[in-house]
């Protein structure tokens, strides 16, 4: 027997999040959770996954809406994908936003907006939004009383299970300029400006490691806005990376910028130039993950071709990927080489003039021994000695031989 339509059917708000509508449906009809509501209509209800996937799948969401007898206008609350795969961007106001920009669920909110109209706004689901444009307060995250995240399958929209009324929460007053700027980019449907801005924002997010809390997001969005408007923003980034540099080489920290071309890479180089001197801590922090040869090259400031040669010469250990033959490199290896480069830069040994007769392996040995300069250890470049000027000339001639040193 087909289950009957819900006796009490919520009317959707135009900018309501799909999670919000289903929580209201569960609440109005006495279900203990959204999962129990799904189960009553024989939809998968073992975990949140199927439910969350339905928010970005209008076909699946329309089946839920139809089964429960909700108005067909509810279907448009689910996001559309602007492409065929689950990695395709979500459509928001006619523009595409990458999947990583979304907060799933109903856990970030403005208490003042909830007081005015009791539903979750879609705008709160997008990661760079950190403030309420209307009330100039920082968006809240989690229950302010018990500090627990607010579940996407809860059965009371405005209350935490601990009993706290979310509308009564106090939020900090903040300048909403950056969030307004972000909203205006979306409203203008300027995909190109948005993509540009998001390149910087994404790299900064990887570098700062401050997480996705709304306080960190406010700082990140503000820094991104200032950079897009022509400010240098070097001090802001130095403040984040300098305390970590004794443990993680600044070039590895700035890799998300260095591996990009053009403005972002130039930005990282400016930050490196202004970095204060520091002493390496021992032992270095152990890094996780693996780098591609291109990333290793960007971190060291040399070309991928040179990285392959260094690997061949046995001076960097590599990891063979499970599938395919790509050689991946542990960031710990890059940290080791960068430290070696930085330390040998400071020693007073006389520099050996390179000649075109040197094999590449020989040149790399020279770099590692501190005889030749690369982009990899230019934190506080000393004035070039006569010998180094000669060396620079030699490196230029090597460049002519397609060895491709980066300036
Ligand atoms: Zn508000
Ligand atoms: Zn609570």
Which tags fit this structure?
407 residues; mainly alpha; 4 domains; two-stranded antiparallel ribbon; two-stranded antiparallel sheet; 8 strands; binds zinc ion
Tell me what the structure shows.
With 407 residues, the protein is mainly alpha-helical. It has 4 domains: 1-78, no CATH class; 81-191, no CATH class; 192-274, no CATH class; 293-403, no CATH class. The chain is built from 17 helices and 8 strands. Helix 7 packs across helix 8 and helix 9 crosses helix 12 (263-274). It is elongated, with a radius of gyration of 27 Å. The protein starts with 17 loop residues before the first helix and ends with a helix. One zinc ion (ZN) binds next to loops.
Task: Spell out the blueprint of helices and strands.
Elements: H1 18-28, H2 34-40, H3 48-54, H4 58-67, E1 90-92, E2 95-97, E3 108-109, H5 111-116, E4 131-132, E5 137-138, E6 140-141, H6 177-187, H7 191-208, H8 214-228, H9 234-241, H10 250-253, H11 255-258, H12 263-274, H13 293-300, H14 304-312, E7 319-320, E8 327-328, H15 331-346, H16 360-369, H17 386-403
Antiparallel strand pairs: 1-2, 3-6, 4-5, 7-8
InterPro entries: TniQ
Pfam family, one: TniQ
Organism: Chromobacterium vaccinii
The structural class is mainly alpha
Q: What general form does the structure show?
A: elongated
The number of helical runs is 17
- Count the beta strands: 8
Pfam families: TniQ
InterPro entries: TniQ
Protein name: TniQ family protein
Domain TniQ: 7-139
Question: Could you write a compact summary of the structure shown?
Answer:
The chain is mainly α and 407 residues long. The protein has helices at residues 18-28, 34-40, 48-54, 58-67, 111-116, 177-187, 191-208, 214-228, 234-241, 250-253, 255-258, 263-274, 293-300, 304-312, 331-346, 360-369, 386-403; strands spanning 90-92, 95-97, 108-109, 131-132, 137-138, 140-141, 319-320, 327-328.
